[in-house]
Amino acid sequence: MKQRSLTEFIGWYGFAAILGAYAASNLGWFAFGGLAYQLLNLTGAVALLIDAWADRNWQVIALNTVWAIVAVTAILR
């Protein structure tokens, strides 16, 4: 698998993880703010950071850096 294809695949995981966490919590499948929710947000943000870094997409990098920090803070609380 080419390097760019790999980062795009990782980015699609990030998209699915964050959207999945949001949908699952809103559908009542797990608690908003719970560990599963925060872990999906954290792994999703890191995955999107990897993909955004490959393109030097600074807005997405900034957004997902903050998203990951919020998730880590919530996990540690």
Description:
With 77 residues, the protein is an all-alpha fold. It has one domain. The protein is 83% helix and 0% strand. The chain has helices at 3-26, 35-55, 58-76. It is globular, with a radius of gyration of 13 Å. The model has no long low-confidence stretch (mean pLDDT 94).
Keyword list:
single chain, mainly alpha, globular
Helix content, binned percent: over 70%
Strand content: under 5%
* Strands, count: 0
Low-confidence stretches: none
- Sheet/helix structural class: mainly alpha
In short:
The chain is mainly α.
Blueprint of the fold:
Blueprint: H1 3-26, H2 35-55, H3 58-76
